[in-house]
Design a protein that fits this description.
Elements (H helix, E strand, L loop, with lengths): L37 E8 L2 H13 L1 H4 L2 E8 L2 H10 L4 E4 L5 H4 L4 E9 L2 E5 L15 E4 L4 H12 L8 E4 L2 H9 L5 E5 L2 H6 L6 E5 L10 E6 L1 H6 L1 H20 L1 H12 L13 E2 L3 H9 L2 H16 L14 H8 L4
Parallel strand pairs: 1-2, 6-7, 6-8
Antiparallel strand pairs: 3-10, 4-10, 4-11, 5-8, 5-9
Length: 339
């Protein structure tokens, strides 16, 4: 059977923390290990949303239960994982909502909603005279372009009748947003927790103009698990096994959030304090509910809403039918016998 090429990219200093899990050899999911288990390579990002289900799957022995042998690989972002999927170096991965335009443009298939992000905010300084989104007209707003912060910013403008040209969008990286907002160099910012906690040390009375959950349930900002296009097409049985692992792990995390935070820290060999409270800015839905929301079109609506924003942002030229990149049928089938 085919063996995938080894990843040789350097993932940056942040990944140095990450070498937690044993990296089993990197064979492709259409190969079997010596003990008969199907080997799969799985990417992740070192945050609570990115590792909680994988850490739970390890703790609960869910990979063995489904006859799978995972090789877990750390990445710094979703686009790098999509690139690795396309190159055949990775079978499955994890992306935040900001990278969803890549599956929407055909680069991978979304196989499962992970958690719904509720960390993003559009904020302003106290006494700025800005009390609502409409007041941002003509104002300087610090925005990390292409992120979930940018997405909620674009959505908030649209919902309040403003065009991007109506504000002075200042593109900067997240750490610069923290500095610029704290020092008053911008009037407002589109940013997220825990960076907002850092800002609050200097601006404790900041004003939140809008937040992610204001748009729920019509719109949401899901992180997702993704798979290689070829794998979904040629080996749906392997995808179904992985989905059963993820669904059972998700349900454990949803029922044990405090323990899941601790487990995630252990998984990453990071201080427990770093993950304490991380679940408070996410919404974790049970797999049965996600299956129901997949069946009635709600999940497709979330992805369609994101795609519409990506069109506005210039990431994609049109907003495709989510059925072309979200495998709702596989998710529902796996949920029917996940336990």
């Amino acid at each position: 059977m085919r063996q995938p090429r080894r990843l040789i990219a350097a993932f940056g200093a942040a990944v140095a923390l990450l070498l937690p899990v044993a990296a089993c050899g990197g064979s492709s999911s259409d190969s079997g290990s010596g003990d008969g288990a199907t080997e799969v390579t799985f990417g992740y990002i070192a945050d609570f949303s990115g590792v909680a289900s994988l850490a739970a799957a390890d703790k609960l022995g869910l990979w063995d239960k489904q006859g799978l042998k995972p090789s877990l690989k750390a990445f710094t972002n979703g686009p790098l994982q999509i690139q690795a999927l396309g190159a055949g170096d990775l079978d499955f991965g994890y992306i935040g909502s900001g990278a969803t335009w890549l599956p929407a443009s055909g680069k991978a298939k979304i196989i499962a909603v992970n958690m719904l992000g509720q960390a993003d905010r559009v904020i302003t300084r106290p006494g700025s005279g800005i009390t609502k989104i409409a007041d941002l007209k003509g104002k300087k707003v610090g925005v990390p372009e292409g992120t979930s912060g940018d997405m909620i910013f674009q959505l908030a403008l649209k919902e309040n009748g403003l065009a991007p040209a109506d504000v002075q969008k200042v593109t900067m990286d997240p750490s610069t947003v923290v500095t610029a907002f704290s020092s008053g160099q911008v009037d407002a910012a589109a940013i997220w927790y825990p960076l907002i906690d850092t800002i609050k040390k200097n601006v404790p009375d900041l004003v939140e103009l809008t937040k992610s959950e204001d748009f729920y349930p019509k719109l949401s900002f899901p992180s997702s698990f993704v798979a290689r296009n070829e794998l979904v097409k040629d080996h749906p049985e392997t995808v179904t096994k992985v989905l059963k692992v993820l669904q059972e792990a998700n349900d454990w995390v949803a029922a044990n959030t405090a323990e899941a935070e601790q487990l995630s820290a252990t998984f990453l060999k990071a201080p427990a304090e770093q993950f304490k409270g991380a679940s408070s800015v996410t919404k974790i839905l049970p797999s049965a509910e996600l299956a129901k929301l997949s069946a009635d079109g709600t999940v497709a609506g979330w992805y369609k809403g994101l795609a519409d924003i990506f069109v506005t942002m210039g990431k994609i030229t049109d907003s495709p039918d989510p059925a072309t990149y979200y495998t709702a049928d596989l998710y529902q089938a796996a949920a029917g016998g996940a336990k």
